[in-house]
Amino acid sequence: MQTESLSDTIQADSTHNRINNPKKKLKINKTYLICWIGVAIPLLGFVLFNGFPIIVSFISMFSKMEYNQLNTMQWNNFANFTKLFSDEKFFQSFKITFWLACSQFVSLSIALTIAGFLSQEVKGTRLFQTLYFVPYICSTVAVAIMWSSVLGSDGAVNAIFATDIAWLNNIDNPYTLTWAIFISIVWQAPGYGIVMYCSAFKAINPALYEAASLDGANAWHKFKMITLPGIAPITFFLLLAGLLAGFGTFDAAKIMAPLTWDGYAGPSDAGLTLMYYIYLEGVQFSNMGYASVMSWVLFVILMIPSVYLIKKRIFSE
Length: 317
What we know:
Distance between the termini: 56 Å
Strand content: under 5%
Radius of gyration: 29 Å
CATH architecture: Orthogonal Bundle
Number of domains: 1
Oligomer: single chain
Shape: globular
CATH topology: MetI-like fold
Number of strands: 2
Number of helices: 16
Structural class: mainly alpha
């Protein structure tokens, strides 16, 4: 009886609340509408300029198109995938891309070293930070053109060392072209890392270094036990961003290794990066289906280390 009375009381209270507190109807006022429009515009832009091309690229992997016309798409029985595993140019471009991506690690090391010196309260630190940052904000195309001139047959490098090496078109040693692109990336990239590391060094509590000195720690122990953990978040970000940028190398390769009449990006395709090859197949040769396959393979290649690094960073905290 008490249980029934309790349930009746709860039901009566809930009915009373529904009657006295009816649900408020959503009123769409001017501010609410403006907020929705503000959200909808970039969302619509993403769907049109990113979402739709992604869907088309996924479908085109399994299709054959004539002159990249969507109305000519036909099922090709996985021919694009078969071509990928037997395409020597793809593996060549991946090798070149991987090597150029390693330039980001060199740039990161240079950025850390220079930022370490600038963090010692060097006179004119802000001026040096600005000067080091200038190459980073320069156009990649302009930087590639500059280095093409410097490393040309009549360029500054040959003039200084009294040599006559065609760095960008060396038939005997074609990979001097790869090194030229590598150097242009290393010259431009460290500026951003220097600024970020300088800010990270300032965020470390000086009391930690004082306590370490009292315990008898030397400079290496301070760097290993205090500095490196303190700049770990910035290092993680720069490492991930550099990895993505390295595998996305395109502008420098296209400028320094223009396509020859016989379809090579420099001698022995020494300047053919994966993004460059995707561009050539999809745009230059109107083979969007095969270019889409390579694009999705590149996406998977980048996703695996990115997810690994992000998970390792999250679980290490």
